[in-house]
Structures are given as structure tokens and as C-alpha cells.
User: Fold this.
Amino acid sequence: MAATAQGANLLEKALGHGENAVIEQDMTNPSRDREKYADPSGEKMKALVWNGKNSVQVVETFKPKIIGDKDVIVKVTGSTICGSDLHLLHGAVVELQKGDILGHEFCGKIDSVGPAVKGLQPGDRVVASFQIACGECMYCQRKISSQCERTNANTIENIMYGGRTAGMFGYSHFTGGFAGGQAEYARVPYGDVNLLKLPDDVPDEKGLYLSDVLSTSWNCVVDTGVKEGDVVAIWGAGPIGQMCAEMSFMRGAKRVIVIDGGPAAWRLDLVKEKTPKVETLNYTDLPRGTSVTSKLKEMEHGGPDVALECVAGEYAKGWAHYFELMLGMETDTSEIINEMITSVKNYGRCGITGVYVGFTNHFNIGSLMERGIRLIGNGQAPVHLYWTDLLKMIQDGSLDPTIMLSHRVDLSEMDTLYQKFDQRADHLQKVFVQTKFSDPPAEGTPGLISWK
Assistant:
């Protein structure tokens, strides 16, 4: 996997970037070029960087500076870790480089603004979308911000996918190469597009999650078409799966069944505790000869109407895919998608929100075609399409992000957090990561813990 990442970096360098981007690419750490990217004050900051496969480290680097007229520098008051970050830890996403600052979910207070930024000023509380959008291109005009045409010039992504996604914070040079928010400061290009003001009645412990997990979960449920009376099955009881369960009920689902197991089986109990209407299925407890598909069809005649994939493609369940992934014969396993396809009713709907990066083997295209299954790639969620409405739901109490919040840790221990989160240890669900700029914990949210 490391060799693949290194090869992708060399290939991108040989091919050169596209000419579509209107902001500078490959600025994943101000220390890479202090004169060009670091604040002239010389101020230092803590940040979490990728050091190679399965290795991250909290380091001291330079505070970023404004380099574009629409840039905003944010003092980070809250960040988090996401299942998607584990794909970076494992080297499953190509074009990572040692020293890249990670983190695509963060909120904070504005430190400084570029001369062309409108409607924002120092001191404003804001949350950043995980994608970087220009606000002007064809996709941005439709609020499909995750597909912005002008913020990611990566050539390999364009060749592999037939098009590019938007640039993304802290998610490798494959998505433009932008320093992330698991740091004390972050630079936000097109700040007045990619930052949303947080009102006083929404603490960071709620507002932070507008950056990704809430928008991603809502997009999964809405884009897959969950409607009144549906029976919904959700693969994965992590934060995305948990919020998809909650949101499916908000959309009128009759039943929601959440599937998980192995080292993460404890998450089923957590989801059940927070949303008692949820039904759970632990695949590791199934008797010999009983599959997830057969169990779901036993629980619901014909199977669920909708299946939502909230896991990802890098986790093999069987030996065939394990070895094919290890040998580079595929980048993603098709096992969960095949389970979804065979589990839903004829003409059922399957939505994929977990990260899949390349190609897969043994895909059950026959069932898909013959039974009329709708397989929907939910895409990287267009945060800008949803975040103002989701903010209103938080304010009126119809949506409570803190049901998934389990821990609060300090940025200085984020490298330990990565390892524990990867091990599904300590019942870590969604974590709030504080910095020296953070306010004390909001009422009813977890207090600070330490592993030192």
C-alpha cells in the first residue's frame, strides 16, 4: 500500500496537475515552505501529521498565513476523528506524503481574514465544511459543493474517476493537498463560502459536526430516498450509521435495523441506548449457516426496502478479499455491497456512503440487474446543500448531535486517539478534540480525559 501511495505521488508529478484550479494546491503543512506559507510572526502551532502507513504524530509546525484574498485563518476550537481518517492512517488513500496535516472536520474562531472576504470578521465563531468550494462554478451554483470544479487539480483522480471532487481539507494530495484542521490553526480558502457562522445557542460540541458527519448522514438518508413506512437496514454502527438511524426515523422509516459485529459490536448497544426504537443485528452472533441476508429476510418479509452502507470498502470479511486487497488485486471489497444487494426487496434501494476509493472484484451484478436493485453512490456529501437547514434542526431541538458524542480529548493526545479509534477501543464513538483555544465543555457533554 505504501508503495502504491509513493508511486501515485511520482505519477502525479510526472503527469502534472490540471489547469482547472483557481487556488494553490499541495499546501499540506506550512513548514514545507516557511517563507511562502507560514505566518511572518513565526508563531508555532501543534498539528497532527501523517508519518507513513499506520503512523501519525502530533508535531510543532508553523501557523499558516493568508496567501489568497479570500483566505481566512481560523483558530481551531474543536476538531474530531472520523472513520475516513483511518483510511489515511492505513495508507488506503493514495498520494499521502509524510508531514501532511490531517483532519477534515473543525470549527473555531476567526483569527484573520483576507481583503476580499465578505460577511466575516475576526472573533466570529464558525464551522468549516470538509470540502473546499469556490461558490461560483456549475456545481457550486447548485450547492453540490463537494464536486466543485475549481479547487482540485489532481490528474490521477480525474483519470480514475472520469472527473474530480472538490478539494478537501487534510485528505491527501489526491484531493488537492490542503492542510487539515487537526491543528491549532487552519487556513480556509474561499472563507466566506466554506465557513458557516455558529450562533450563540449552538456550542462547539454541536456545531462542529455540521462540518461532515451530520451532512454526510443526512445526504445518505435523503439521497437514497428513505421515506414514510420504509424498513431500513444500516451496515455500520459508527457515528454515521448512528445518525443515519436517527435521521431515517426523522424521515418516517417504520423500522431501522443496524448491523455490526466483531470488535465494534459494543456500538450496537450504544446506538440502541440512544435510539431505543432501533433494532440491532450482530453478525458475529449468527449461527453457522445463517447469513446477514438470510437473517434480514427472516426479520422482514422480502428484506428491507433500503440498505445504507456506512462502513467502507477496505475491511474484508472473507479470505478471498483479504488476500486480494493485500496483493493489490483490488482496492475495495465488494462483500458489504453484495450483502446489501441480496438483502433488500426486489427493486430495493442501496446507498453507499462509506468510502470506496478504486476497484472491486466479485461484484454481484446479476442480482442488481435481474431484481431491479437501485445502487446509489451517495458521493462525498454536499455540505453546503444541507448545513443551514441542519443548523436550524439543532437549534429547534429536532436534531441532537451529542447523542453520538462519547469522549473529549486534547489535541496533544491525538496520535494516541488514532490508534485507539482504529482498535475500536475504550468505546470511542464520536470524539471532541479540544485545543488551547477551546471553551470549557458545554453542559451535558463529556469532560476531558487523558491517556497519559
Q: What stands out?
A: The first strand starts at residue 44 and ends at 52. The chain has a mean pLDDT of 93.
